[in-house]
Structures are given as C-alpha cells and as structure tokens.
Amino acid sequence: MAYVITDDCIACGTCIDECPVGAISEGDIYKIDPEVCTDCGTCADVCPSEAIVQG
Length: 55
Prior knowledge:
- It is a single chain.
- By secondary structure, this protein is α+β, with helices and mostly antiparallel strands.
- It has a single domain (3-54), classed as Alpha-Beta Plaits (2-Layer Sandwich), CATH 3.30.70.20.
- It has 2 helices and 4 strands; from the N terminus they run βαββαβ.
- The protein has helices at residues 14-18, 42-46; strands at 3-5, 24-25, 31-32, 52-54.
- The strands form 2 sheets. A two-stranded antiparallel sheet has the order 1-4. A two-stranded antiparallel sheet has the order 2-3.
- Strand 2 (24-25) and strand 3 (31-32) form a beta hairpin.
- The longest helix has 5 residues, at 14-18.
C-alpha cells in the first residue's frame, strides 16, 4: 500500500529529495502518486512533521 501525506505536511521539501522514484509532487500539502510509489518508506523516515503514513 502506497504512502500518503496527511494535512500535517509543512511543505518543507525534505521528502522530495529522498524519494528514489520521484513519486512526490509539491504543493501547499505535498502529494504522493500511488501509481509510482514503491512503498519503500524513505519519505516517512525523513519527514520532520511525521505527516507521511502508510495508506
């Protein structure tokens, strides 16, 4: 199951640089494309606001 970014996202950009497949897109709240996400969890590991959870 792909990871999702909750409303706790502070749009800091930390996760984008960590995603090995480029599944994360910028915005007021960042989004993860579930079709591209490989469920590696790297983004969740680096998120300072713990806004990334397994969907």
